[in-house]
Write a structure and sequence with these properties.
Helix content is 50%, strand content 6%. By secondary structure, the protein is of the alpha/beta class. Among the domains are: 114-122 and 162-465, Methylmalonyl-CoA mutase (TIM Barrel), CATH 3.20.20; 492-555. Strands 1-10-9-8-7 form a five-stranded parallel β-sheet. A five-stranded parallel β-sheet has the order 2-3-4-5-6, with helices on one face. Helix 10 (257-277) crosses helix 16 (413-435), helix 12 packs across helix 16 (413-435) and helix 14 crosses helix 15 (383-398).
Length: 564
């Protein structure tokens, strides 16, 4: 990046700077004072931070091949040539609670407040393929998201919302095929054909095995369901992002920034490899892959993380998989601010944390963003706290100035050096996972889980010993009254949902239901694409539990391995 003569001059200048600094340290020590607050400074992920960064730290970075220009390979500076000067990112607040009726009201409120996309949070029974009247669902219906048992619930969820004009993201994994089928059927019942739909299903089962836990089936049939969705949507739902490969939950489980990038992209490599082995051409589906990342408190490290992830993915897709289309090489991603960074103590402090994380996501080039609400460490967010979270995005978009130029931190010695550091660390992990046989094998051997657990342990130990300060939690505490006005979901929601489900079952054509479920069963036993029979089952109001119950019978259930 710099001529040797200039680098030599900078090296001499740095040596002089360091010598003068050491003299200053000695003077202060003689007076019994320390020159710096800490012996070692580290990032949020624990990587050591130098006192000063200079061109010497970026001399091996090629400004053309490594950094380049926005909208051009390797996309370090963003996937669009003008980024937010064209339009700002999609403001997609994650929401869902209790019943479809109540969540529909929240969606309408958010759209009225300026939200530009929907993001559906499902309750735990829905996430693991159980209906609301199943014994495993007792006490959990509507608690952490909305309860969806059938097409009837999804029709209610989106009542009055034009699905051809609103992009919808659904955080659903193991039963993703079923919920996508419900969505397609609901749209068609409202005169919107599948080719008009825009949105994303998370559909990332590998991170469930590694970090989150809402899996149903073993890896092999799970990967089949994913590739079936890839194949079906490439032909019938071309505007749909068929998977959102999620680093978010990997980071929430305790991973570092570099581990989040590495394990997420390793999962992405596994999905691409599986799709190619299933007979799909990489350029027919790769452009519809999307990613989902976390945004933590260390603003500059997070910006570097997003830039490194784009660069790695572009090179992997081009060099490893031979992707020819630029869109196939682009890493497009949604971001959510860090849920694990929120504190129950002094929850108003979370507004500031979320603002910092929002800046990191935007300056890192995200395509869409969810900002957490201040009270989410305590309960589901209230309307007021959701509005503040959305306003945080809007203030950053329209008042902060960071959206006025592309990749505003490019060229910073620190940011460029950290981008390269994260890239190198992530690639070392990816190479190790390749040696183990890929992400599926690495998960089956417990490697990824163990790495995350070790990082999480170190992070928590630093908090408990006071080495890492969390304002309001382990320092700067105050006496606080118990929180008031929290949103609570009581057991009556589950009772009412189960009753509604039974009434729906009584009114449907149950002969058609049994026939449709048998078609799903036969398709699962063979190698035909599962999406068409699942959509057919959705249209005759087969429930999520019934469809996934059939798949459980054919595929079996996954049993996690022990890593400790």
């Amino acid at each position: 990046m710099y001529e040797k003569e200039k680098l030599d001059q900078i090296k001499q200048g740095l040596e002089g700077y360091n010598a003068a600094w050491e003299k200053n340290v000695e003077k202060l020590a003689a007076k019994g004072r320390k020159a710096e607050r800490k012996d070692v400074f580290v990032t949020g992920s624990g990587a050591e931070v130098n006192r000063l960064y200079t061109p010497l730290d970026v001399q091996d970075i090629d400004p053309v091949e490594d950094i380049g220009f926005p909208g051009e390979y390797p996309f370090t500076r963003g996937v669009q040539p003008n980024m937010y000067r064209g339009r700002v990112w999609t403001m997609r607040q994650y929401a869902g609670f209790a019943t479809a009726e109540e969540t529909n009201a929240r969606y309408r409120y958010l759209l009225e407040q300026g939200q530009t996309g929907l993001s559906v949070a499902f309750d735990l029974p829905t996430q693991i393929g159980y209906d609301s009247d199943h014994p495993m669902a007792e006490g959990e219906v509507g608690k952490v998201g909305v309860a969806i048992d059938s097409l009837a619930d999804l029709e209610t969820l989106f009542a009055g919302i034009p699905l051809d004009k609103v992009s919808t993201s659904m955080t659903i994994n193991a039963p993703a095929s079923t919920l996508l089928a419900f969505y397609i059927a609901a749209a068609e019942n409202n005169g919107v054909t599948a080719d008009k739909l825009r949105g994303t299903i998370q559909n990332d089962i590998l991170k469930e095995y590694a970090a989150r836990g809402t899996y149903i089936f073993p890896p092999t049939p799970s990967m089949r369901l994913i590739t079936d969705i890839f194949g079906f949507c490439s032909e019938h739902v071309p505007g749909w992002n068929t998977i959102s490969i999620s680093g978010y939950h990997i980071r929430e489980a305790g991973a570092t920034a570099a581990q989040e990038v590495a394990f997420t992209l390793a999962d992405g490599i596994a999905y691409v490899d599986a799709a190619i082995k299933a007979g799909l051409d990489v350029d027919t589906f790769a452009g519809r892959l999307s990613f989902f990342f976390n945004s933590h408190n260390d603003l500059l490290e997070e910006v570097a993380k997003f830039r490194a992830a784009r660069r790695i993915w572009a090179r992997v897709m081009k060099e490893r998989f031979g992707a020819k289309k630029e869109r196939s090489q682009m890493l497009r991603f949604h971001t959510q601010t860090g849920g694990s960074t929120l504190t129950a103590q002094q929850p108003d402090n979370n507004i500031v944390r979320v603002a910092i994380q929002t800046l990191a996501a935007v300056m890192g080039g995200t395509q869409s963003l969810h900002t957490n609400s201040k009270d989410e460490a305590l309960a589901l967010p209230t309307e007021e706290s959701v509005r503040i979270a959305l306003r945080t995005q809007q203030i950053v978009a329209y008042e902060s100035g960071v959206a006025e130029t592309v990749d505003p931190l490019a060229g910073s010695y620190y940011v460029e050096a950290m981008t390269k550091r994260i890239e190198d660390e992530a690639m070392a992990y990816i190479n190790k996972i390749d040696e183990l046989g890929g992400a599926v094998k690495a998960i089956e051997q417990g490697y990824i889980q163990k790495e995350i657990q070790d990082s999480a342990y170190e992070y928590q130990k630093e908090i408990e010993t006071g080495k890492r300060i969390v304002v309001g939690q382990n320092k700067f505490q105050i006496e606080e009254a118990p929180p008031e006005g929290l949103l609570k979901i009581d057991l009556s929601v589950g009772i009412a949902q189960a009753k509604k489900l039974q009434e729906m079952k009584a009114g449907r054509d149950n002969v058609a239901v049994q026939n449709a479920l048998e078609e799903v069963r036969e398709a699962a036993k063979g190698d035909a694409n599962l999406m068409p029979p699942i959509i057919k089952a959705a249209k005759v109001y087969c429930t999520e539990g019934e469809i996934n119950g059939v798949l459980r019978e054919v595929f079996g259930e996954y049993t996690p391995i022990q890593t400790v």
